[in-house]
Structure formats: structure tokens, C-alpha cells
Amino acid sequence: MMIFILLACLGGVLVGLSRQLNGRLSISTTPLIASFWNHAVGFAVLTCLGLFVGGLLPAGAAQAPWYIYLGGPIGVVFVAAGSWAIARIGAVNAALLIIGGQMVTGVAFDYLSAVPTSFWANATGIVLIVGGMMVSRRRRKSGGAQ
């Protein structure tokens, strides 16, 4: 179990590093160029890894529904928007916005897919997320410590 926890932590560190690099590149160039290089390097590394390890094209990939492949274009938009946001609101606030958005979207997906959930637990979580973001925003506007 410990190896999976360490892999998750490593993944988080690498995502944070990627966001920082994309934000910095976005400041030097544009968010679209930063997104392009993010995807070009990722494509090259993952293609080499897929060729080396195997399973680059899994069996049944051609029979998958078309909407399965929408993750790529959505990812391009997400990375470009993240690069743009980091340059304007900072890495910490962008990370909070992304995490908060993922959590609220997860709750919305649970309700849409009729997953049994606790309304009060979900409502409390959303209120805490939005409240934390409002406190962070208020502190930044008043010139307090970030």
C-alpha cells in the first residue's frame, strides 16, 4: 500500500511542477504555446514509454465510443486555461481553483449518475470549499499574507 501512496505523492509533485513550468512558459510566450509544448513533450514521452513497455494501442481501441477520445481536446483547453490562470492569479490560487472545481464537479457527477450520497456531507463540503476560496480572496484583496 505504501508504494501506491508514494506514487500518488510523486504524481502530485509532478503535476505541480508541470503547472509551474507551464505558467512560467506562458508568461514568456503565450498560454497556447505553453500548452503546445506541454502536449508535445507529453506525447513524445508517453509514446516512447508505450513502445518500450508495450500496450501503446490496446486491443479494442478502435471499437471504443467516439466520446472517449474527447479527453484530448478537453485536456488541451484545460492546460491552456491553467497556463493563462497561473500567469494572472498565481500558482497557489490556480491550484485551489482547480481542486475546488474538481471537487464540486465530482459532487455534481455523483448526483447526475444517481450514486447514493449524503446530501448534508456534500453540501457542507461545497460550502467549506467556496468559503475557503472567499477567505483566500478577501485576504489577498486586503493585502494580508498569502
Which SSEs are present, and which pair or pack?
Layout: H1 2-28, H2 31-53, H3 71-89, H4 91-112, H5 119-141
Helix pairs in contact: 1-2, 1-3, 2-3, 3-4, 4-5
Question: Can you characterise this structure?
Answer:
This protein is mainly alpha-helical and 146 residues long. Helix content is 78%, strand content 0%. It has five helices and no strands. It has helices spanning 2-28, 31-53, 71-89, 91-112, 119-141. Helix 1 (2-28) runs antiparallel to helix 2 (31-53) and helix 3 packs antiparallel against helix 4. The protein is globular and about 50 Å long. It starts with a helix and ends in a 5-residue tail after the last helix. The model has no long low-confidence stretch (mean pLDDT 82).
Q: Classify the helix fraction into a percent range.
A: over 70%
Number of helices: 5
Percentage beta strand: under 5%
Low-confidence stretches: none
Distance between the termini: 35 Å
Number of strands: 0
Judged by helices, strands and strand pairing, the structural class is mainly alpha
Summarize model confidence as the mean pLDDT.
Answer: 82
Order of helices and strands: HHHHH
Quaternary organisation: single chain
